[in-house]
Amino acid sequence: MTATMPKNIYDPLDSHTLTVNTKLLGYLDDTTWFSNSLDNLTAHLEIADDFYNLANTKLLTNDKQLLTHTTHPFVSDKI
């Protein structure tokens, strides 16, 4: 994105140009991911992480919750 602004309104050739390079602008809040298995969910989140790295986007990855309808608990750090 490039913007050129005049420094002096009486001299149109006297200007300042500002250039900003960005891949993604956005605000993400309360994203919900659905999957039919933990393996598929892990694969989808890895793809999303790759995209966010490519787009140079920072996420709060420690602020997450896993909700499930199963009655047996499991222990995993993969997600």
Structure characterization notes:
- The protein is α+β, with helices and mostly antiparallel strands.
- The chain has a domain at 28-78.
- 22% of the residues lie in helices and 13% in strands.
- The protein is built from one helix and two strands; from the N terminus they run E-E-H.
- It has one helix at 38-54, and strands spanning 2-6, 15-19.
- It has a two-stranded antiparallel sheet.
- The longest helix has 17 residues, at 38-54.
- It is rod-shaped, with a radius of gyration of 22 Å.
- The chain starts with a strand and ends in a 25-residue tail after the last helix.
- This is Reverse transcriptase domain-containing protein.
